[in-house]
User: Fold these one by one.
Assistant:
Number 1:
Amino acid sequence: MIVGVIGGGQLARMMIPAAVNLGIEIRVLAEADGMAAELAASGVGDYRDLATVLAFAEAVDVITFDHEHVPQEILHALLEQGTPVRPGPDALLYAQDKLLMRAKLSELGLPVPDWAAIESAAELGEFLEAHGGRAVVKTPRGGYDGKGVRVVRAAHEADDWFLALAEDGRGGALLVEELVEFKRELAQLVARRPSGELAAWPVVETVQQDGVCSEVIAPAPHSAGKVADVAAEIALAVAEGIGVTGVFAVELFETTDERLLVNELAMRPHNSGHWSQDGSTTSQFEQHLRAVLDLPLGGTGTRDPWTVMVNILGGPASGSLADRYADAFAAHPTAKVHNYGKDPRPGRKVGHVNVGGDDLDDVSYQARAAAAFFQD
Ligand code: ADP
C-alpha cells in the first residue's frame, strides 16, 4: 500500500506520522520549498506538469492531495493511467471554483447565502441594491485565507478584479454574495470511503482573524441537538451529492436568526480538524489515509469534553519555534505543539497548539497562552 500525496504543505506533512504509525508507505510530490519533502520518500516537482505527475503516480497505489489546485486535465490523465484519484476530479472541481461550488450546492438544495455570478460593475450595483447596499465579492479561483474575499458597499469596488479577469484572458465572472449576519462560524468534518461508509466528527466552532482561522473549539459550544444534527445532515448531503472521498470539511455560518448556511467546501483534511490529532479517537490525517485506501473508518468520538486548537500565526520575530519549547513546555505541560517546520513570516500559519480538558475556559486559556509563546 503506497499513498502518493500531491503537494508538500503542512497537511501532507501531518499525514506522514499517521502513515508511519500504520506502516503505510507515503510519498509526497512537493513543491521545492514544501515542508513535507524532507520527511517522506518524496519527489520535488511541479504539480502542473503532466509528465511529472504521471511519473510520480506510477509508483503509488492511490493519489491524494495536500491542496485542491491540481489541474483537471492532469487529474483525468491520472484516471486514464489507472491510478485511483481520491477525492476525484469532479469533487475537486467544486473546491477549485467558488462559482461552480455555489451552483452545485444550490442544485443540491442546500442552504447557501444569496449569490450571483456578475460580470460588470453594473451587475454588482444591482445586487447591492437588492441586498441593502452591502455584499461580499469573491474571486472564484485561487483565493485562500480570505485573500480574494472583499466586503463592498459600492458598485465600483470590484473594478480591479474585473480588470484582472479581463487582462489574464480568462474572462468570466466574479461571485457576489449577501453579507451574512452570522453569530459564529462552524465547520463539519466528515470522512467518506469510496465504498460509501461515512464518519462525521462533532461540529466545531471556528474563529477567524482577518480572514484566517485563529482558533477552533471542539465540539462547538451549545451545539448539541439541532445545530449538530443539521450540520451533519448538510455534510452528508454534500458527501453523497458530490461523491467526495477522503476527509473533507464544510464551512458553515450560523446566522443570527438560527439558520445554518454553507460557506465553503474543502476537499481535504482541514484546519478545523487539527484538534482531532489530540482530541479524537481518530485524527483526521489517519482517517484520510483510511478513507483513500478504502479501509474501515476509525471512531470519531472525543477524548476530552473540550479540545481547543489555536493556530500559531506568523511565528517568533527571531529564531525558530523550537527555541521557545523549553519555556512553553514548562508553563503548559498539557499543550500539544505541532510545528510545521516553516520559516516564520507575518500572518503565516507555522504551527498550532491543541489542549484538551474538562473546563472550556481553562482549556482555551491554556491553548492561547501556550500558542502566545511562539508569537511576537
Ligand atoms: P477563503 O477561501 O479565502 O477561506 P471564504 O469564502 O471562506 O474565503 O471567506 C473567508 C471569510 O470571510 C469567512 O471565513 C467569513 O469570515 C468571511 N465571509 C465569507 N463570505 C461571507 C459572507 N457571504 N458573509 C459574511 N462573511 C463572509
Number 2:
Amino acid sequence: MKHHTLSCILGLACSSMALGQVDPPLIPQPERLEWTQGRFDLTGTTIAIYKLELRDEAEFLQAGLRSVGIDADIEQVHRGMGKVVALGLAPNKGLKPEGYELTIVPEGAGLYGTDEAGVFRGIQTFLQLLPPPGTASPAVPCAMISDQPRFGWRGMHLDVCRHFMPADFIKKYIDLLARYKMNTFHWHLTDDQGWRIEIKRYPRLTEVGAWRNGSMVGHYRDRQYDTLHYGGFYTQEEVKDIVAYAAKRHITVVPEIEMPGHAMAALAAYPELSCTGGPFDVERGWGVFDDVFCAGNDSVFAMLENVLTEVMTLFPGQYIHIGGDECPKERWKTCTKCQERMKANGLKDEHELQSHFIQRMEKFVNASGRKIIGWDEILEGGLAPNAAVMSWRGTEGGIAAAKQKHNVVMTPGSHCYFDHYQGDPAQEPLAIGGHTTVQKVYSFEPIPSELTAEEGQYILGAQGNVWTEYINTPEHVEYMAVPRMLALAEVLWSPKEKRNEKDFIARLLQEFPRLEAMGVNASKSIYQVETTIVRGNEPGRLTVGLSSPLGLDLMYTITRPPYSEQGRLGRYSQPLTIDADCEVQGFTMNNGSTGPIARKRFDFNWATAQAITCNPLPNERYDDGGPLTLVDGIHAGERRVNYEWLGWRSDVTITVHLSLGKMLTHVGIGALEEHSSWIHLPEQVVISTSLDGKTFAVQGTVKPEKDAQGNVHLGIDLKEVGAAAVRFEVKNTVRIPAGMAGAGNPAWLFLDEIEVR
Ligand code: ACM
Ligand code: ZN
C-alpha cells in the first residue's frame, strides 16, 4: 500500500515559512555593520561615479535598482548632496583587496572600495539590502558598513564533464557566486567522460572527446547505462565570453585540464598519447580508469603544452589547474617508455614518475608566467616547487603542503563536496553518498588547528565542489549548490569571531523567497525533521526523538503493520518510546504549512535495542549513532552510506547481550559493497553464541554472498541454540586489491543491522 502524504491528508500545502524577521538578510555577514536611524528611499536617486573605471560597477547597481522599479541615471560627477548613491575608490583605508565601506543615510549613500572589486562587492551588499521585488516603496535601511574578506580564494567548482551544462547556465552560476561575494570559479573542463573545451590545434579533442555513446543511470553500483549519444563542448568564443562575464563580476575562472589521469576522453581522440596505443572510447560510466597519459612519451608533453598554451590565452588568471588526482599507475608499471624515463631520471617508483610529470608541466606553466594548482595527490612523490595544492581527501594534504610553505585551497570531502546528500537520503534525489548539511558546511574551519599562525597564512581559502555524476540538469546543480554555497561564502568572507549558525539560518530563511524570485532552485532540505534514536530505559525499547533544526513545531504519527492505515496524528512534545515494528513519521508545522516528512521504519528482532559492544569502536568518520546503529531496528538502505552504516578500517568484534535468553534459529549482520567508495565486503565473519555472556562457542564461519538485490547478509541458520549473547568476529579485506579504486589503501568495512531470531 502506498502512503498518502500527510500534507494531502491534512489538505495543507508544502511551503516555505517565515520565521521571525531579522534585519535585511545579508549573506555573507559584513565584518562591521551598524544599523543606524531611518531609511533611504531610492525613488528619484542617481548613481554618481568618481572614476570612469567604475562604470561597469555602476551598471550593476543600475540593473539591480531597476528590479525594484527604480530608474537611476549614472552620472560621472557628483552633483553635490541630494538623492545619490556615490561610488568611489578609497585604496588607503587599511582594508584588504575587495574591501569596501558603505554608508547609508536617509539622503543618500556612499560606497568606497579598496579597488573596483571592492566596489562590486559593496554593490552586492547594497542589492541585498533592497526589499523583495514588488515592495511598494523601495527603500534600504540606513547603516554604516566596513567590510573585507577573510580569505582571498572563495571558490565554487563545477564539473561539466560528467554532465554538460549550457553556457547560459554557467553565467547564471557565476551570477550566484557574485551575489554571495565568491571570487573564484573552478571550471572542471576535461575528464574521462568528456572533453569540453575547444582546442584549435587538436580538433579531435572535441570532435571525438566531447561525445559518448551512453551514460550511467542510477547509482554506480548498479552498473546500468542508457544508450543515448551524449555530449557538448564550449567553443573558444563561448569560453572568452564566459571569462569576460566573470571578470566583470570580479570572479576569476580557473580552468582545469586533467592530467595524467582522468584522461579517457582525450585518449579516445588521440590514443597514441597512452601507454598502450588504445583504441579507447569516451567513458560512459563513472570511476577511475587505468589508461592515462603516458609519462615516458615526449609527444604527450608537447601536446599538453600546446593545449595549455591555448588555455592560458583564454584564461588570464594566475592559476591553471592541472588535475593530478586519482591516477592509477598500472600502465606505467608495464610501459617500456615510462620505465625508461624512470631509469633515465633516477625515479624510484611510479609516484616519483607522476611527480616528474607534474613538475615538467609546472616548468612550462611557470615559464608562461602562471602557476599550477592540483589535487592533493600531487604531493605524492614530491611536490612541484611552486605548486598550490587543493586538499580534497580530507585536510591532511593541505596541512602537509602548508607546512612545506605551499599555497593551499581547502576542499575536504567532509564539508565541501556539494555532490553529497544534504538531508535524509530517503527524502533526497539520488546522490553519490555522504551527508553534508548546510549546518555542517557552516561549521567548516579552513585553517586546521594543526598549523601555526605562520603556516596558516598559506591557506588561501576554500571552495565547494559540484561533481555531476548524479546531477544531470542545471536545476539540479542549483539544488545541490544552494544553500550550501551560501554557508561556505560566509565561512570564507566573514570574520571567524562573527560566525553564528542560528543567526545565519535566520538570514538564510529570509533569502529563500529572494532565491525563488531569482528563479534559483534552492534546496529546502533544511526544513527536514531530524530523528535521533537512543536505547530506551529498558532493553528492547527504543526512544525516538524528533527535532526541527529550525525550532519549528512538530507533528508525528506511529503506524503499525500491516501499514494499511495511517496512525493517529499527534503533536510532538516528548520522545516516543517504541518496542515493536512500526513506522514513525515526523514533520514540521509552521503557520499552517507542513514541511517535508521524515519517515523511519523499525523492524524489531531479538537483538533490537539490546546491549551491544564494538571492539574497536567505528571509525569517527562513519560512527553516526554509535554501536546502537547496528541494533536500532533500521536496515540501512543502499543510499544511506554514512548514515545508517557504521564504518571500520580494521577487523571488528561485535557482541550483543540479550536481556532474555532465547532459543536461536538465525544470527546475522548486514554488510555493504561499494568499490567506488573503497567499501569492500569482509573476508569472513565468525559467529559465536554464549549462554553466560562470557564463554563463546563458534557456530559457524560465513563468507559474503549477495542476494538478488545485491544486498549482503552474513548469517547462519541454527537449530534452536540457547543463547544469552551473540558475537561476530568480522575480518576486513584489509588492503584494496590492485586495479580497483583506492588500490593499496586499507578497505572500508561497512556494517549494519544485526538480526537474531
Ligand atoms: C576528486 O574528487 N577526485 C578531486
Ligand atoms: Zn607509458
Number 3:
Amino acid sequence: MTDNQLRLGVNIDHVATVRNARGGAYPDPVRAAKLAEEAGADGITAHLREDRRHITDADIDALMEALTVPLNFEMAATEEMQKIALRHKPHAVCIVPEKREERTTEGGLEVAREENRLAHFIAPLRDAGCRVSIFIAADKKQIEAAHRIGAEVIELHTGAYCDFHVEGKIDERDHELEALKEMSAYAHSLGLEVHAGHGLTYDTVQPVAAFPEVKELNIGHFLIGEAVFRGLTPAVQEMRRLMDKARG
Ligand code: PXP
C-alpha cells in the first residue's frame, strides 16, 4: 500500500443484524469478514453495542481469532466495553456515542463536554497498544478536544452529508462536504490521523475519498445491502475501485 492509498474498513454489523432477526447462526459475520478481507478490505469494523442488537461478544472472540487484517472495535465509552477491549487488545478502538433508542450512531461524540473523563478512559487503551479513534462531527471544537485528550485518530461523521444527498438537498449536502474537507485538513494539521464514515454509498464515497488527508473510510450498511444484489465480494471490490479512482 502506498502512502496515498486510502484504507477501506468494512463494517459487518448488519450481517449480524440479519442473523439476529431469526436467531441461530446464519448469516455468519465472520464469514462475511473473511470474504471482505479477500475482496480488498484493509480492516474489519464491528460495533459491540451495549444492547448486543447485532454483534455479540462471541462474534468479537471469533473475529479476533479469524482475521488477518486489523479489527477496528467500535464501542461506547463505558467501563464494560473498556474491559472487553483491554482483554482483546484489538488493533484499533473507535469510541462512539451510543443511545439505546437510536437506530444507528446518530451523531458524533461530545468530546469537549467530557474531556477529563475521556482522557482517563482512553489512556489504558493506548497503553495496551490500541490505536484510539474518536468518532466526531466535523467541528473544530470537537477536533481540538479529541487532540487534547490524546486520541491519535479522529473519524469524521459523514451521515449528514449522505442524508442530504439522498434527500436531494444539494446546497446543504455541499455545505456539509465543505465542512468535512476543511476539518479533515485542520485535524491533519494538528497531527491527527483522519478517518471518515457513516452512510457512505457508491454515490457519495468519491468526494470524501478525494480528500488527501483522509486515510481510512469505514463503510457497512450500504455494502451489506448491496451484497444482496451482487454478492459481497463484487460489492466490496466496486467500493474499492471507486475509492482508488477518486484518489487518483
Ligand atoms: N463509522 C462509525 C464510527 C460507525 O459508527 C459506523 C456505523 O456503525 C460506520 C462508520 C459505518 O456506517 P454505515 O454502516 O452507515 O456505513
